[in-house]
Amino acid sequence: MLFPPAPAPRVARWWQRAGDLPQLSLNIVMTNMGITRICLVRHGETTWNADKRIQGQIDIGLNAAGLAQAQAAADWLANEAVSALYSSDLQRARQTAARIAHRMRLLPAFRPEFRERRYGFFEGLTYDESRARYPADYHSFETRDPEFVIPFGGESLRQLHDRVSGGLRQLAAEHHGETIVVVTHGGVLDIVNRLVRGNPLSAPRDFLIPNAGINWLQIRDATWTLESWGQTEHLAAFGLDELP
């Protein structure tokens, strides 16, 4: 089992008014209390995404396309009954979260555990430039060696896994039976998909992570499942997936 059992659900305030509801409706609400849903949204596009330049934790903002994508994601999610909004504290995620926050009338909380992976001396370079300048290191990166720590302040996949899984466990415990939104990054979403599906960190990626794509997780009885992945119906054009 990837994640420990969630704590018992908190008593919600609507319980005090539940007597006014028909019995059938009350049963439906009580059944849904055990289901936690987490919507993970990748930030909108940046100029560096378009250039296939590795951002890591360099604080790059959204370009015009990315701002439009963020608004489209916000409009798409507007009718969801969301109780809390979280975001990476990097600018591109904050800008995306701001559109969602405004549309949902929520105040975002920033969590550094959902920042992008630290890519060390690859940050600021394109993927091709990184391969040419640091061929041995890039090979370890490209072949997804879980223990390879990218030099000059980078993280390994294992370190990223531990950071992201810890953050998810904490949110699931804090919001048992609720629906929440988390705005984050491609590297984080790569980890989340593998966590939930039980796939190894070293396996080649077999899923897309488009900019402003919407991804849903469901947690019920300590079982984590993918409800949907890489939704882009809200985007006028398909969101960019520039990741290797």
Explain how this protein is built.
- The radius of gyration is 19 Å and the shape is globular.
- Strand 2, helix 4 and strand 3 form a beta-alpha-beta unit.
- Helices cover 36% and strands 15% of the residues.
- It contains eight helices and six strands, in the order αβααβαβαααβαββ.
- It has one domain (35-231): Phosphoglycerate mutase-like (Rossmann fold).
- The two termini are 29 Å apart.
- It is α/β, with parallel strands linked by helices and 244 residues long.
- The protein has a six-stranded mixed beta sheet with strand order 3-2-4-1-5-6.
What is the strand and helix layout of this fold?
Layout: H1 23-32, E1 35-42, H2 47-50, H3 64-77, E2 84-87, H4 91-104, E3 109-110, H5 127-133, H6 135-142, H7 157-174, E4 179-184, H8 186-197, E5 214-220, E6 223-231
Parallel strand pairs: 1-4, 2-3, 2-4
Antiparallel strand pairs: 1-5, 5-6
Helix pairs in contact: 3-4, 5-6, 7-8
